[in-house]
Amino acid sequence: MESPIKERTVIDIGKTVEKHVSFVNELLPAHALTGCDTVACCYGVGKGTALKVLKAGHSLSLLGVIDSPIESVIAQATTFMSACYGQYSTSKSMSETRWRVWASKTGQASAAPPKLCSLPPTREAFKENVRRAHHQAIVWRSLEDSNPPELDAEMYGWLKDSKLKKLQPVPLPANVELAPETIMRMIRCACKSDNSCRTRACSCTRDGLKCTIFCACYAAGCSQTLT
C-alpha cells in the first residue's frame, strides 16, 4: 500500500500490532479509563500518557472482563491511574495518590497552590468512574460475541432518571459527603444574594475568601463565587 500524497508516512498496522502485542488487548480499557463518551477523563491525563504507562508495564487486564471482581478491577485501575499522575509507588487508594500529587505540587519553592481540577479524583469518585469504564470496556470487548452479556447499568456507576428517561452518572455514593462537615462550615456562607456577599456581613468576604458552590448564595448567581 502506498500513500497518494508524497512524503506521507504509511503505517503498517500488522507490524504495529506485532510490535505492541504485549498490551494491544488493553488499549480499549485504557481508552475507556482515560475518558470517552461515557466516562469522564482525569485532568491532564491523555491518551499519550496512558500509552506510556502501558508500555512501562502497568496492566489493565481486568478492566472489561465481566467475571473480574470489581474490587480487583478498581485496585488495578488505581495503580494504573496513579502511574499516569507520576506516582509509581503503590498507593492504597486514589485519595492517597491525590495527597501525594498535592504535596509534590505545593512543596516546590515559589509554587502557587494547585488548582483542584489538576489533582487526581478522590477514592470514592474514582471508584464510580472505574465502574463506568468497566461497563464500557465490557461492551467493547463483547462486540464480536454472538450473545453479548446483558448488563444492568445501575450496577456500573449509573442511575436511571425516570423523569428525564435517561441514565445519569453517579458522582459519589449516596452515603458519601462532598467534604467533611468541618470543611463545609469553614468555607460556606449563608448569604442569600450577591449584594449581601459584597459586605463584611458575609463570612467569606470578612475572612478574605471567595464564595464557593457550597455557599447559599451560589443559587442566586453570586458574582463573588470562586471560578
Chain-wise SSE layout:
Blueprint: H1 13-19, H2 27-33, H3 47-55, H4 70-84, H5 94-106, H6 123-141, E1 158-161, E2 166-169, H7 181-187, H8 203-206
Antiparallel strand pairs: 1-2
Helix pairs in contact: 2-6, 3-4, 4-6
What is the rounded Rg? 22 Å
Q: Sum up the overall morphology in one term.
A: globular
Helix content bin: 25-40%
The H/E string reads HHHHHHEEHH
Q: Mind summarizing the main beta sheet?
A: 2 strands, antiparallel
Number of strands: 2
Strand content: under 5%
| Regions with little confidence, pLDDT below 50 for 5+ residues | none
Main structural class: mainly alpha
Total tally of structural domains: 2
The first-to-last residue Cα distance is: 52 Å
Provide a count of the helices: 8
Overall average residue pLDDT: 88
